[in-house]
Amino acid sequence: xxxxxxxxxxxxxxxxxxxxxxxxxxxxxxxxxxxxxxxxxxxxxxxxxxxxxxxxxxxxxxxxxxxxxxxxxxxxxxxxxxxxxxxxxxxxxxxxxxxxxxxxxxxxxxxxxxxxxxxxxxxxxxxxxxxxxxxxxxxxxxxxxxxxxxxxxxxxxxxxxxxxxxxxxxxxxxxxxxxxxxxxxxxxxxxxxxxxxxxxxxxxxxxxxxxxxxxxxxxxxxxxxxxxxxxxxxxxxxxxxxxxxxxxxxxxxxxxxxxxxxxxxxxxxxxxxxxxxxxxxxxxxxxxxxxxxxxxxxxxxxxxxxxxxxxxxxx
Length: 315
Fold this sequence. Notes:
about 20% strand, 7 strands, CATH 2.40.50.140, single chain, 3'-5' exonuclease, HD_domain, five-stranded mixed barrel, two-stranded antiparallel ribbon, 2 domains, alpha+beta, about 325 residues
């Protein structure tokens, strides 16, 4: 099956896709047009739709699934689509959602099995109880099995957050023998719960945006609120040393406060410091792998937004 990013300049594209973003404009002849960001499993591409009428404006909206007939053109060195025809997808089209959004290459059941194994390995009864309660509801399970880890920066695809968690758990288990000063159970618990606030910071797994609580509070504080709520429900003291340590690691995992990356406090324990760097490694390496994957064979350098500079492919 051919996806949006597989098409080359001059080719005709007839495909189903998801509208990820929409911006309206007025041409020099006063006709309205739309700049659309369209997506499918291969990623996203910008598209232009000219001569938009009132009826089209009603059903062309973000998160709508549409069928397009378009041509691929180059614009400022990047591929874009010029749409000739467009219609909303119908139930009879039987479009599979998995074909419309980028998805983790690792099967979700495989990731879930590794997550539950890590929970079972915890020796702390307190931390195990907190995580088991966090995973107990169908709503949380459903969100964790589908939500991305972010809108654009890293693991920004279907069940990307779960992949990120499992990747962190794997890295932590490999490095723990080197650093005996790190609290193993608190580190494992932080790997699992550090981004739980994103399950409510982000709007949905299909075309995610930031919710109002997500923008006003942020996922670090939202995650700590979730932990505190679970502790109250289970009658676990909020002054418990492991609970305090876990919440500290969550609140500090974006690094030094003065960096302005969103931490509420700078890391003050070996476990918190180690987790911050684990999270940095995994998030940045994932984002860089996506940058490299998007490069053409002719490209030697590409801009990586996660580093705010160009990176070299190296081969």
